[in-house]
Amino acid sequence: MVGRSLETFCMGLRILVGVLMAALTIPVAMQVISRYTGIIPVYLWTEELATFIFVWVIMIGSMVAVWDGTHFDVHVIPDAKRPILILLQKGIVLVLITVFAAFFMWYGLEYAEFGSRQNSTMMRANKAITYISVPIAGTVWAVFALYRLFEAFTAYRQAPTKVTS
């Protein structure tokens, strides 16, 4: 049930990334059109808006990648065949992701608090809008990685053991 809930949450994140990517095309198109054609005036707020959206796209995309197991895992050694080695391979990566996520959660709160004291130059928007993405991403990474670690332990416990006589 928890896995289904997290999968649904991740599907929502995927949809949100798609919406944000579509939204990102608007300020970027305005920048391109204004710089190369002169049809519309140069709006400096479009660059700030594009930056805000882009930061969120990156952070949400990294959350989805942690769920899918495609972001922080680099295969240096061949995939293990024995259940205990599979658990070790997956477990080490997932524990390291969780430690990394804990740093993002802990220091990200201070970072977001720092951003809450600043406003963007052109849009006058509070920068906490983007800075808060760091501790949120860390929290979601930790939840996803810990759930995947739980799945790895469950798969290990359910793996058939070979008995040699």
Describe, in plain words, how this protein is organized in 3D.
The chain is mostly helical and about 160 residues long. The chain has one domain (about 1-160). The chain is built from five helices and no strands. α1 runs antiparallel to α2 (about 45-70) and α2 (about 45-70) runs parallel beside α5 (about 135-160).
Proportion of residues in helical segments = over 70%
Integer tally of domains: 1
Class derived from helix and strand content: mainly alpha
Tell me the radius of gyration: 21 Å
Question: What is the tally of helical segments?
Answer: 5
Q: What is the mean predicted local confidence, pLDDT? A: 90
Order of helices and strands: HHHHH
Low-pLDDT segments, ≥5 res: none
Shape: elongated
Number of E-type strands: 0
Distance between the termini: 40 Å
Largest sheet: none
What is the chains' assembly state?
single chain
How much of the residues is beta strand, in percent?
A: under 5%
